[in-house]
Design a protein that fits this description.
Layout lengths: L5 H12 L4 E10 L4 H13 L3 E5 L6 H8 L4 E5 L23 H19 L6 E2 L11 H7 L3 E2 L9 E3 L2 E3 L18 H16 L9 E5 L6 H15 L3 E3 L9
Parallel strand pairs: 1-2, 1-8, 1-9, 2-3, 4-5, 5-7
Antiparallel strand pairs: 6-7
Helix pairs in contact: 1-6
Length: 253
């Protein structure tokens, strides 16, 4: 069954008719080394004209990845936890930085993540913290800011512009992967309906339209259907009313 883009197209036209703009950003998780999939991500980013914030796992990051990122302006490295290791008790949702660990241990890992990636990526590294599985204990947030992080990114619309004093919240909102099933593409109609509803909520003032709208991908596990849908959606958004956003444009309002 072919997905119907009409409702989304109509919503986007309403945005344009009302002179609204949608800041759009892209985050891709779990990078550690150059791969053919990373090549594909980089080329698609270049084709679309939308840079990718590449969430790098510090413990496993290689010098080869740093060299690869240094050779392109399409990839913006950010910090993806420390080891992408689950510390949650059996039966609970996976988390590396959840409430299951001592606060000091979690902050030490977050600190180590930033200190490990800074020498690798230099000024290209953005001090954005992306907790694996998009889960983090609220008790850690003020500590992240004190470590030198300026931004926290998880998933779903943010409740407020700052997660803590000095720590902006910039989340992702759409993940095309069916994690609990085939690990292929979520049914496209479901994704299109989700985007349409999210944008309608923003336009009506029900959610924060100052927050950049985030596409979340995982290049290492993409099949052709996920690549194709991601390209089609981002292309349509950028055709109007979306404008590319990167962390260099971050504000605390």
């Amino acid at each position: 069954m072919t997905a119907d883009w009409t409702p989304l197209n109509d919503e986007l036209q309403t945005w344009q008719d009302q002179d609204l703009t949608l800041p759009l950003w892209w985050r891709d998780d779990d990078a550690v080394e150059p791969t053919p999939q990373l090549d594909q991500l980089t080329e698609l980013s270049k084709k679309l004209g939308l840079p990718v914030h590449l969430a790098v796992i510090p413990r496993d990051a290689t010098a080869a990845l740093a060299a690869y990122v240094a050779g392109t302006t399409q990839l913006i490295p950010v910090v993806h936890g420390w080891a992408h290791q689950n510390h949650a008790p059996q039966g609970e949702k996976k988390a590396e930085f959840g409430a299951h660990r001592a606060l000091e241990q979690s902050l030490a890992d977050a600190d180590q993540g930033l200190k490990t990636l800074r020498p690798l990526f230099g000024d290209q590294l953005e001090p954005m913290f992306v907790p694996p599985w998009n889960r983090i204990s609220n008790d850690l947030l003020q500590g992240l800011a004190k470590l030198g992080y300026t931004t926290l990114s998880t998933f779903t619309p943010r409740a407020q512009a700052e997660a803590a004093a000095g720590l902006a919240q910039v989340n992702t909102h759409l993940d095309p992967i069916q994690w609990k099933g085939s690990r292929s593409l979520v049914p496209p109609q479901h994704l299109l309906d989700q985007v349409t509803k999210q944008l309608s909520s923003r336009r009506l003032g029900l959610t924060d339209n100052a927050e950049p709208y985030g596409i979340l991908t995982h290049h290492l596990v993409h099949g052709a259907a996920i690549w194709d849908f991601t390209e089609a959606l981002i292309s349509r958004l950028l055709a109007g009313p979306a404008t590319p956003w990167t962390t260099s444009q971050r504000t605390f309002s």
